[in-house]
């Protein structure tokens, strides 16, 4: 065989292999979709700050705490459960799961769901410190690698009157927020002091921890 033809065929074979490798790499990146397992518009707005493409899917899970489960354990379990639920239909994705549980004197404060329950919650919380346990996980559905943490945030509430509580609830209606207050909205008027490592954790998505988790999955924000 002509040595030139043999070399030329080898060169084309190498090019073909290179194109296959590049194609596989691109498909792998496309397959590793970033998904936020939440329907919260506030978490979606927070994640948008990182300027990464992502989609949102709301997993339906039972959020009831288990008996003898600590608040931070409840939040962490639910965050992981939500991520794994989405993974069932998106087996190649990177999935962000999150959940938040508020506690007053070690007692869980769930989502009030209605005006009456929200009024009772805020009356108990006024003049008191409430701890918000914000759980975060990043689940690689393909490798089944799970990163997870809980970021606490302490909030001291003002000693507000019943009339102030009523006016707040009628204006903002935070009935699907743990603790019955939206710190990112008018709820900030109920708060006297906040202490924590990441203010985003109070809203429900600890971005500082998430950036580190994404980096561990070779996704650089910068």
Write the layout of secondary structure elements.
Blueprint lengths: L2 H29 L2 E4 L3 H8 L6 E2 L14 H17 L6 E11 L2 E3 L5 H11 L3 E12 L4 E13 L4 H11 L18 E6 L2 H5 L3 H10 L6
If you had to describe this structure to a student in words, what would you say it looks like?
- Helices cover 41% and strands 23% of the residues.
- The chain contains seven helices and seven strands, in the order αβαβαββαββαβαα.
- The chain has helices spanning 3-31, 41-48, 71-87, 115-125, 162-172, 199-203, 207-216, and strands spanning 34-37, 55-56, 94-104, 107-109, 129-140, 145-157, 191-196.
- α2 (41-48) links the parallel β1 and β2.
- The termini are far apart.
- Mean pLDDT is 87; it is low at 9-31.
Number of distinct helices: 7
- Please identify the structural class as seen in this structure: alpha/beta
How much is the average pLDDT?
87
Percent of residues in helices: 40-55%
Largest sheet descriptor: 7 strands, mixed
Rg from Cα: 23 Å
End-to-end gap: 52 Å
Quaternary class: single chain
Quote the beta fraction.
Answer: 15-25%
What are the segments in which pLDDT stays under 50 over at least 5 consecutive residues? 9-31
Element-level helix/strand string: HEHEHEEHEEHEHH
Approximate shape: elongated
Query: What is the β-strand count?
Result: 7
